[in-house]
Design goal:
CATH architecture of the largest domain: Beta Barrel
Number of strands: 15
Strand order of the largest sheet: 6-7-8-9-10-11-12-15
Number of helices: 4
Structural class: alpha+beta
Strand content: over 45%
Number of domains: 2
């Protein structure tokens, strides 16, 4: 005839998520010699611990108090022998797998010691005095959580973007994809970088009765940027500014106009124009080193860019690019 396994009551107190993981660790541990019964309580109750009697169904009782971050307080009682054990266990604060395994091992060893070796336990008076001293001692104020380290970023940044900018009254806007590369360094929440970007602006057309134009632009920029993280966390928003200069290489192809008296178009040509740029930048990490960024910028042509139609008595400007042009970029970088 097999012996009935002794009943152990385990009372869990603390965060509900932590309690579930501790229970799973205990159930998977070597407690096969016992019939384990779990319940939860809002807080550890010393009166209930000392009130356990031999008439109780549970042969042993264990309280696991996880209400203090980074620590597990364990209380054991054998109602039959009226003996007690008190254990305190330092944890990492994350209650990871190693923490859960440590709690499970201490619970198992303490239960066996309490049942098999009375010399390692406390009598009622000793346990009561120990708990009184513990309650009377001032608890250490929880240490302030250290400020999370800023995201570790490599010196090299690579990105792709799509940009839109004003052009002229006749064309409206230009837009197209681009790539960006930068080399930078960080300290604290600050970051400085030197970068370059290339954008291909899709072909835009201007037409009137006398003449038409096809414009294709390759935009090159070199810039310096500064960013400041608004918070210490890895996913904090960064705001900053970017200043730069570069060249717009524009291929111009004259086309026949839409009217019956259109002019004969000239041969295709190309121009290179100096451009200055300044912008406000916002960047938000997405995780795994990727970041999404946007830039609101304005570009300035030091010299006026215009396209003239040759007439018998001189020339007439048919299209003039805005000297001051706002725009926006949206992209992702690594």
């Amino acid at each position: 005839m097999s012996r009935r396994a002794p009943v152990i009551e385990i009372v869990l107190t603390g965060d509900a998520g932590d309690l579930g993981s501790i229970r799973a660790a205990l159930e998977s541990h070597a407690l096969s010699a016992f019939a384990v019964r779990f319940r939860t309580a809002p807080r550890f109750d010393a009166k209930e611990l000392f009130a356990a009697r031999a008439s109780s169904e549970a042969a042993l009782s264990c309280w696991i108090d996880l209400s203090r971050p980074g620590r597990a307080e364990l209380y054991f009682t054998d109602p039959v022998a009226d003996r007690f054990l008190v254990r305190s266990l330092e944890l990492s604060g994350r209650l990871d797998e190693l923490d859960r395994e440590s709690v499970a091992q201490v619970v198992e060893l303490s239960l066996r010691s309490l049942r098999e070796d009375a010399s390692v336990s406390l009598d009622r008076a000793q346990a009561h005095a120990l708990l009184l001293r513990r309650d009377a001692a001032p608890r250490e104020a929880p240490a302030a959580a250290p400020e999370p380290a800023p995201e570790r970023r490599g010196a090299l940044e690579l990105g792709v973007f799509y940009g839109v900018a004003a052009h002229s009254a006749g064309v409206g806007v230009t837009h197209g994809p681009g790539v960006r590369v930068a080399l930078g360094g960080s300290w604290g929440r600050q970051r400085l970088a030197l970068g370059a970007r290339f954008q291909y602006q899709l072909e835009r057309r201007y037409e009137e009765p006398r003449i038409g134009l096809s414009l294709s632009t390759a935009s090159f920029r070199a810039d310096a940027s500064w960013l400041h993280a608004l918070g210490p966390r890895v996913m904090s928003l960064e705001l900053g500014a970017r200043l730069g200069a570069g060249v717009d290489h524009v291929d111009v192809t004259p086309r026949p106009g839409t009217g019956s008296a259109a002019f004969v178009p000239a041969d295709p040509s190309a121009t290179n124009t100096l451009v200055f740029t300044a912008g406000a930048v916002a960047r938000l990490p997405l995780g795994r080193g990727a970041r999404v960024f946007t830039e609101l910028f304005v570009e300035l042509d030091p010299a006026r860019v215009r396209y003239d139609l040759a007439l018998g008595q001189g020339t007439e400007t048919v299209l003039a690019r805005y000297r001051l042009r706002p725009g926006v970029l949206l992209g992702v970088e690594l």
